Amino acid sequence: MLFILSIISFLSIHLEPNSFFASGELNPNISQEALKNLQKIYGLDRPLIIQYFSWAKAILSLNFGISFVSGEMVRTEILEKLPTTLLINISSMILIFAFSLYFGIKSALKKDKLQAKIINQISLLSFSMPIFYLSLILLMIFSVKLKILPLSGLHSGLGLSGFAYYFDTFKHLILPVFVLTFSGIGSLSLYIRSLCLDILKSDYVFFARARGLGTKTIIRHFILPNLYPPLVTMLGLSLPALIGGSVVIESIFSINAMGFLFYQSVLSHDYPVIMGILMVGAFLSLLGNILADITLLYLNPTHKENK
């Protein structure tokens, strides 16, 4: 799968009409000989199939090439910015699944009550509101009007250290993490609600209630065990969406991480960086699916019986 994704990404990038050297071709101060020398240095003068296999051989050793813009190793740039992106995405993912699980179960148990209607409306709002629009509204309220949260970046740049440094980082991450969390809980909570309604209609829940078991016991022993397999599957499938969403979030909040680097690289046609980030994102997505499959194997009751 990773091999197929690499071919698709490589061909898509090289089929783009514009290139990094297009601006140089229009610059009268840069000669055609200089442009040809640059293309030779980066190996862009060779046939496309040779370029691909040369690049594929290099990435096996995590060598993604040299950035056209900065002149630095792509691997170094990605490794510097990947931890921040993972911090934002993992924090958001934990909150998304925690709140979605709570709201979904609550809405199913109180399906005819006012609480369920409020939760459903919030879920629909979350599902339908664009990320960039919500981000701009929150920035206007909390950063411009109230001035209680930072406007952009990851640090204030005041030479902070210790607890003050981490607290400053926490304040900068509140809005990005909230936006990703709010935009993710809508569809997942509605999905969990639908699953819970089906579980509550089952015979084993009916007999559990007939035996006088309380709501907490039913949730713990009947609802949650049946929710874990589809939730684990959703967890593996949600990784690509979170990584893609970080491009928008990091660009709006000017967070110098992998998503913002990808956005800048697309604007400047920095092919090595684009390809490097695409392959890292594809690897993380496939890794998430593999871990989800392994987790599902251990959640399967027949697996425990066989052991």
Secondary structure topology:
Elements: H1 2-14, H2 22-25, H3 32-41, H4 48-59, H5 74-109, H6 114-128, H7 131-145, H8 163-200, H9 203-210, H10 215-252, H11 258-268, H12 271-299, H13 301-306
Helix pairs in contact: 1-12, 5-6, 5-8, 5-10, 5-12, 6-8, 7-8, 7-10, 8-10, 10-11, 10-12, 11-12
Helix and strand element order:
HHHHHHHHHHHHH
Poorly predicted runs of 5 or more residues: none
CATH topology (level 3) name of the largest domain: MetI-like fold
Strands, total number: 0
Global morphology:
globular
Write the CATH architecture name of the largest domain. Orthogonal Bundle
CATH class of the largest domain: Mainly Alpha
| Mean pLDDT figure | 82
Distance between the termini: 31 Å
The assembly state of the depicted protein chains is single chain
Tell me the fraction of residues in β-strands, as a range. Answer: under 5%
Tally of contiguous helical segments: 13
Structural class label: mainly alpha
What is the CATH H-level superfamily of the largest domain?
MetI-like
Which percent range fits the helix content? Answer: over 70%
Computed Rg: 24 Å
